[in-house]
Amino acid sequence: MQVDIIFLLYLGLAALVLIISLLLKLFPAPKPSGFMGYKSDRSRRNRKLWKQAQNLFPILFLRLGLLLIATAAAWSISPIKSFLIGLGALALILVGGIAFGIYSIEKRLKRYEKRMISSSK
Asked: What residue ranges do the domains of the chain occupy?
């Protein structure tokens, strides 16, 4: 039986991403710092936006981890076993997943900020 390096890479990264998600959920960044938390211009505008961003950030990692697990399962039954294709797909999943997740978080923060402004009037 041959060990598939790409399959193990997908599962290892999925485990790492899921652990990060759990840590971010259990220990959210209490204030903007140089090390932890989701930091963007919008999330730093006020404390409520910061807290909302920290609530949404672990969901990004959870979804990315689940996507990596699903891709590992698909890879294991795929007839294509090219190392370069596997690495390329992994890069696309990581970059695309993170980019889409950040876009989604920013969109939600924008809606949350509009609701905060309209409710304060």
From this structure: 5-29+37-120
Provide CB contacts within 8 A for 19, sequence distance 6+: none
| Cα–Cα distances in angstroms (integers) from residue 12 to residues 15, 17, 45, 111, in the given order | 5, 9, 36, 35
Q: 42, 109 in Cβ contact below 8 A?
A: yes
How far is residue 65's CA from residue 94's CA, in Å, rounded to a whole number? 10
Reply yes or no on whether the pLDDT at 1 is more than 50.
no
pLDDT 10s digits, 28-62: 888 887 678 899 999 988 899 999 999 999 999 99
Q: Which long-range contacts (CB under 8 A, 24 or more apart) does 42-46 make?
A: 42/106, 42/109, 42/110, 42/113, 43/109, 45/113
